[in-house]
Amino acid sequence: MKKQLVLIGGGHAHMTTLANLHLFLAKGYGVTVIGPSPHHYYSGMGPGMLAKVYRPEEIRFDTRQVVEKQGATFVLGKAVRIDAQAKIVHLADGKTLPYDALSCNAGSSVPQTLPGMETARELFSVKPIERLMEAQARLLALAEKKRISVAIIGGGPSAVEVAGNVWRLLHDAKVAPPQITVFAGSGLMPNQSESIRNRARRSLTRRGIEIVSPARVQEIREKKIILDSGAVHEADIIFLALGIAPSQLFADSGLATGPDGGLLVNEFLQCPEYPNIFGGGDCIHFQPQPLDKVGVYAVRENPVLLHNLLATLDGMPLEKFDPGGDYLLIYNLGDGTGIFRKRRLVFGGRLAFWLKDYIDRRFMRKFQSSQ
Prior knowledge:
Helix content: 25-40%
CATH superfamily of the largest domain: FAD/NAD(P)-binding domain
Structural class: alpha/beta
CATH class of the largest domain: Alpha Beta
Number of strands: 25
Mean pLDDT: 93
Number of helices: 10
Number of domains: 2
Strand content: 25-35%
Oligomer: single chain
Radius of gyration: 21 Å
Distance between the termini: 30 Å
């Protein structure tokens, strides 16, 4: 029986491998890609899609089409357990897939940790990106009827971007100006420089977006947010932007994980205990040094994963992953401006957003061209 490669997820770290599945097939290997959706959305453009700056089809890759047009198999489903001893992936629908080499790009999600979240109907997490499409529809529907209040729980970059782009969406819709409140925990963008924090704060407050901090949310009830101070705030729609956590898949499978729950991988992006398992993106914990949960590392992991998956099946030497140096960050503030950061250089304004838009669109064109 021919050797089998299985990929879990069609995210950023798998882009180059997905575009080159024909290399595996040409060697006689079987290839199966598992994905919870036929499409993979680029999260960096998600807030812009929320504001209708981008259409959904502009920020997504057609994973199924990329896989199937090369002659590989796409399975619509969710991996729930990896039996590393038997080399089998178990799916939520009960099906199983055997593998000789496995690569995991299972992504991350917003932790669902607050009491009351399971019953709140107008609650939207910032990931998966499909939830932002649902939120967009609800925002517009409710705002046509009345002046609405929107709450964003979290104070990091995603909270800032969502707040700014909710404002943009409803401003462009010419409805009654909403009351937008960011509950920023211990502070707004606490892990960024003072210059970035100040720019973000000024941008939001200039548009009437309220920042409540310190503000630890203790509980969510139907259209209500309860803080640890006892204060109660009403909200028609609530966004959850409390950071991200890796998939539970690896802990549930008994595989070694890092402190954050991500699949533990070595310098080859390889599970130390099971050398035929690899991983990249937000779902891993890189053993040599912790990596920030930013897309640049997933992009940099692409060529190493492609090489090492082929090498594993071919019985050839592996290649080490070098995370590289500092990286560029640009935040989309939702009003046609952004915040640019590269090393010590920080600036804001329309040029920053123009650069982000140019880089993002170029990235999309590169990988959408293989569809």
